[in-house]
Amino acid sequence: MSAFTFKKVMTIHMLNWGNAYAIIHRSGRSIDRLELVKPWNARILEDSDTGDIFYRFSGKDRTYMDREVLHLHQFSFDGICGKSIIEAGARERFGGHIAAATYGEAFFGNGTHMGGILISEDSLGSDSEVVNEAKSEIREELDNVYGSPDKWHNVGILDGKWEYKNMTLKASDAQLIERSEATVEDVARWLGIPTAKLKSRQNTAFNTREHEAIDYVQDGLIPRTTIWEQETRRKLLTEAEKQQGFETSINEKDLMRGDLSSMAEFLESMVDRGIFTPNQALEFMGEDTFDGGDIHLMPLNYTTIEAFEEGESENRDIENLKKKLSTQVNGDHE
C-alpha cells in the first residue's frame, strides 16, 4: 500500500480501536518495511518485574519486543494500552442519544409528527369483531392513501360522520429529536474537529470556518502528528541517527495558512524583523527562490540598547573631536 494509505489506516485504527500496530521488519540496521497489523489481533504483555513491553499477534508464531513494533495510541489510562473514543468516555454520553435516535426513527417514520385519532359520531355496532374489522379497514385505507411522504399533503375525505383530531407534539418531544444534533457536537469535541467538517447543519460564517480550520490543526491534528513523530523517532531511528540530529517531523505549516491578507502581513513581519530571509518566505509559500534572497534584512531604526549606547558614545566622541578641530582651526587663524 502507499504511504498515504498506511498512515490513514493506522490513524483510523488508533482512533476507532484505540491502538494501531505495525511490525518493523529490519535487515541489519536498515528498515525493510512496516507490516500493518489489525488491532483486534493484538495482545500487549508487560513483564511485571522489568516493566518491559511485548506484543503477540494472531497468526504470528513469535513474541515481539517493544522496539520491533510501531505502536500508536492516543487515549490511554496507563500509557501502554490505548482506548477508543467510545471507551475513553463517550459511552455514557452516547447512551441517551442512542435512545433518542431509536425514538427518532419511529418519529420520522410517522411523518415527523404524532399520529391522529378518528372520532365517529355514530356507533359502529355492538359486535366487537365487526367493530375491530371496521376500524382495521379504515386505518388500512388511510395508510394506503396518506401513509407515504409524497401523500402527506393530500386532502383527506372521510365517509360518514367522522372527526379527525391531530395528536400534537409536546415541546419536550421535539427537543428530544433535536438532541441528536448533540451527537455531532460531541464527536467534534472529542476529535477536535469543527462541526462544519462533520457536515453539521449548524450555520457558520465563512471567516469563522477559516479560523476553525486553523483551530482544528492546532487542537485536532497536531496532537496526533506529535504521536506519530515521537513514536517513529523512538522506534525507527537508531541511536547514532538521533545523535547526528536526525528527526521525524510532519509539516503542518501549509494547513496553518490563513487568508491571503493575514499571510501577507505575517510574512512581511517575519522578513522585516530579520527572522525570515526573503527566500525562506518564498519557500513557506511553496514558491521558487531567487539568487541573493538568502540574506536577513533589518530596519535601520532598529538597534539594541548596547549598540545605541555605543552609538551615543561614538557621537559624543565625534562632537568632541569636531570642537577640538574647530578650536584648533580658529586658533590657527588668530
From TrEMBL:
Ranges of Basic and acidic residues composition bias in the record: 313-322
A Pfam family recorded for this sequence: Phage_portal
Residues annotated as signal peptide: none
Database matches in InterPro entries: Phage/GTA_portal, Portal_HK97
Region (Disordered): 311-334
Entry protein name: Phage portal protein
Species the sequence originates in: wastewater metagenome
Lineage: unclassified sequences, metagenomes, ecological metagenomes
